[in-house]
């Protein structure tokens, strides 16, 4: 039996993998938010009872969104190889993982956002309509601002989900914490690495979740913050 | 000024408005009343440009607003202040921020916006609540902020759908006071939908009764109370027949409506004196419509010249509605 990996090496493994995970998840979350929120807004605008109801557009958009959401991430990872190469100029490594992560998360964010926006009460929206506000203003000042706490929480949920998905990044050499746990820990029977990674992931996700919950609460002006 | 002509609207074949015609003179308050499902909200929503009527016209200050689109529609909406039914404030904005919304929509710059918001907070008596969020306000305060918001962009008309429905009597009073001030101080034309005749009693100049999508009664409140057959009079005037009286002890029994200080105060004693009759109030009572005292009394008269006394009351401005005993229609 080999002697256990020294803690100093475990730490440097964890440090590097954490950097990779945060990079992959961070960038893909930003992209998924920037593109997913408009998708959610568009879904809600075109929905029945929305500001710009349009059944045909809504159906198509819903279909594409749900298709994207039902795609297993591992399939997306492999299927998007050529697209990834086109965008980032290569198909392996952390940067290459960002493409499928972001693509997978856009419909996820879109649906979450639509559900949240649909919760804004119709009287509140109509009151804004009667002030002569443009659709853009209503989206910004009413739909999004009124739901901001819930939206921030939804982004938090997305980050946690993407950390999970990114564990499969190893398939295309993306590295990260999941990859560390599987390849260095599980496959090489290195319990110290496996369990330190698991413990660190638990800490990391908890801290991230807490951060988003705090931010959501800070943005909430309602007395009973229940999001 | 609001003119509604022959408005119709149906939902999936069910008719909600069935040829509604009414008008609200500039600077007056019209109360729209009627049973649940009569089409009151539908009417208000059509005038608020939230619902498009199937046919008919709605004119605000002479301009037909029913077929506008795009920026013309948004501009028209700014001319029409709306207090929607139910909670309608942005919960993530302060009271001041809520009032500012129409001003932002109108593209009014920050400093002017703040001045105007200050004026409106003053109008509704909530200057000290400027920085409070809706959840920190009472129902009545929220409703007053909603009125202030509706008035922010200087609309010429104000619509309110059940502005007091969820409020207790005292709070209702504070909201009605604000609506009344809007009319008195800003000269706004007000259309208020309500199921509460108390609202009509306190602030309405005119009333329109809606039933099954039709206007079944429309006119000045003070005129309608003189008409015994009107729904308005039976809803607003004190009941006369609470205590059964012994009619045989009177030569004449008649119901009379008196409007205004002079009539209520002086007419009956004067009549008794002039015609030398005994004149007793045997039923009914006194109420107030806006600032005007209004009475409906059941009178019992004894004396030879009882008919003449009743006739004189009618001529002097009272309205003798029916003679329950004696020659029918003698003075009516
Ligand atoms: N969006 C809608 N879709 C279908 N039917 C509607 C809609 N809005 C109103 N109606 C119908 O139109 C009729 C009039 O409704 P409206 O809300 O105008 O009544 P109301 O006089 O305001 O009643 P209430 O006093 O209960 O508020 C009712 O029969 C109602 O069911
Ligand atoms: Mg209604």
Describe the structure.
- Chain A: It holds the Pfam family BPD_transp_1.
- Chain A: One of its GO terms (biological process) is D-methionine transmembrane transport.
- Chain A: This is D-methionine transport system permease protein.
- Chain A: The chain crosses the membrane at residues 22-45, 57-80, 86-109, 150-173, 193-213.
- The complex is a heterodimer of chains A (227) and B (332).
- Chain A has a single domain (7-220), classed as MetI-like fold, CATH 1.10.3720.
- Chain A is built from 9 helices and no strands.
- Chain A has helices at residues 7-46, 55-70, 73-79, 81-88, 94-117, 122-130, 135-166, 177-186, 191-218.
- In chain A, helix 1 packs across helix 8, helix 5 (94-117) packs across helix 7 and helix 7 (135-166) runs antiparallel to helix 9.
- The longest helix of chain A is centred in the first third of the chain and has 40 residues, at 7-46.
- The model of chain A has no long low-confidence stretch (mean pLDDT 91).
- Chain B has 332 residues and is an alpha/beta fold.
- Chain B has 2 domains: 2-233, P-loop containing nucleotide triphosphate hydrolases (Rossmann fold, 3-Layer(aba) Sandwich), CATH 3.40.50.300; 247-323, 2-Layer Sandwich (Alpha-Beta Plaits), CATH 3.30.70.260.
- In chain B, helix 3 (95-105) crosses helix 4 (110-123) and helix 10 (261-275) packs antiparallel against helix 11.
- Adenosine-5'-triphosphate is lined by residues 11, 14, 16, 34, 36-42, 195 of chain B.
- Magnesium ion is lined by residues 40-41, 85 of chain B.
Short structural description:
Chain A is mainly α and 227 residues long. Chain A has helices at 7-46, 55-70, 73-79, 81-88, 94-117, 122-130, 135-166, 177-186, 191-218. Chain B has a 6-stranded mixed β-sheet with strand order 6-7-8-3-9-10, with helices on both faces. Chain B has a 4-stranded antiparallel β-sheet with strand order 2-1-4-5, covered by helices on one side. In chain B, strands 12-13-11-14 form a 4-stranded antiparallel β-sheet.
């Amino acid at each position: 039996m080999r002697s256990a990996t020294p803690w100093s090496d475990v730490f440097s493994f964890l440090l590097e993998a954490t950097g990779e995970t945060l990079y992959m998840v961070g960038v893909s979350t930003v992209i998924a938010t920037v593109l997913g929120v408009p998708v959610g807004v568009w879904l809600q605008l075109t929905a029945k009872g929305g500001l710009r109801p349009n059944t045909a557009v809504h159906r198509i958009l819903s279909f594409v969104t749900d298709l994207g959401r039902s795609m297993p991430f591992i399939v997306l990872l492999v299927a998007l190889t050529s697209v990834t190469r086109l965008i980032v100029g290569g198909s392996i490594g952390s940067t290459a993982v960002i493409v499928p992560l972001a693509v997978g998360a856009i419909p996820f964010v879109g649906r979450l956002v639509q559900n949240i926006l649909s919760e804004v009460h119709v009287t509140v929206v109509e009151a804004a309509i009667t002030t002569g506000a443009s659709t853009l203003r209503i989206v910004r000042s009413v739909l999004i601002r009124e739901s901001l706490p819930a939206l921030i929480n939804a982004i938090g949920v997305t980050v946690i989900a993407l950390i999970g998905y990114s564990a499969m990044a190893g398939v295309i050499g993306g590295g990260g914490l999941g990859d560390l746990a599987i390849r260095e820990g599980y496959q090489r029977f290195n319990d110290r690495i496996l369990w330190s990674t698991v413990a660190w992931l638990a800490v990391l996700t908890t801290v991230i979740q807490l951060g988003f919950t705090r931010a959501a609460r800070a943005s909430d002006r309602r007395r009973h913050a229940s999001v | 000024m609001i003119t509604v002509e022959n408005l119709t609207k149906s939902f999936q074949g069910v008719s909600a408005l069935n040829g509604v015609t009414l008008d609200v003179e500039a600077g007056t308050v019209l109360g729209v009343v009627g049973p649940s499902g009569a089409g009151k909200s539908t009417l208000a929503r059509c005038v608020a440009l939230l619902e498009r009527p199937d046919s008919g016209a709605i004119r605000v200050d002479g301009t037909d607003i029913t077929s506008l689109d795009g920026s013309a529609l948004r501009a028209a909406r700014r001319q029409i202040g709306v207090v929607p039914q139910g909670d309608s404030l942005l919960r993530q904005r302060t009271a001041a921020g809520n009032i500012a919304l129409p001003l932002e929509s109108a593209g009014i710059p920050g400093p002017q916006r703040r001045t105007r918001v200050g004026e409106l907070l003053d109008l509704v008596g909530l200057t000290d609540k400027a920085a409070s969020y809706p959840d920190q306000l009472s129902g009545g305060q929220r409703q007053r902020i909603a009125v202030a918001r509706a008035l922010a962009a200087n609309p010429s008309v104000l619509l309110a759908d059940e502005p007091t429905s969820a409020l207790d009597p005292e709070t209702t009073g504070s909201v009605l006071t604000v609506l009344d001030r809007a009319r008195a101080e800003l000269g706004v034309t007000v259309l208020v939908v309500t199921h509460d005749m108390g609202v009509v009693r306190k602030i309405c100049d005119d009333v329109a009764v809606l039933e099954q999508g039709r206007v079944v009664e429309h006119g000045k409140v003070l005129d309608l109370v003189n008409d015994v057959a009107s729904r308005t009079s039976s809803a607003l005037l004190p009941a006369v027949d609470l205590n059964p009286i012994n009619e045989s002890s009177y030569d004449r029994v008649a119901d009379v409506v008196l409007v205004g200080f002079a009539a209520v105060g002086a007419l009956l004693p004067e009549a008794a004196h002039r015609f030398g009759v005994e004149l007793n109030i045997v039923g009914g009572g006194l109420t107030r419509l806006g600032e005007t005292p209004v009475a409906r009394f059941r009178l019992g008269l004894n004396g030879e010249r009882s008919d003449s006394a009743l006739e004189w009351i009618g001529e002097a401005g009272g309205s003798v509605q029916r003679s329950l005993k004696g020659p029918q229609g003698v003075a009516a």
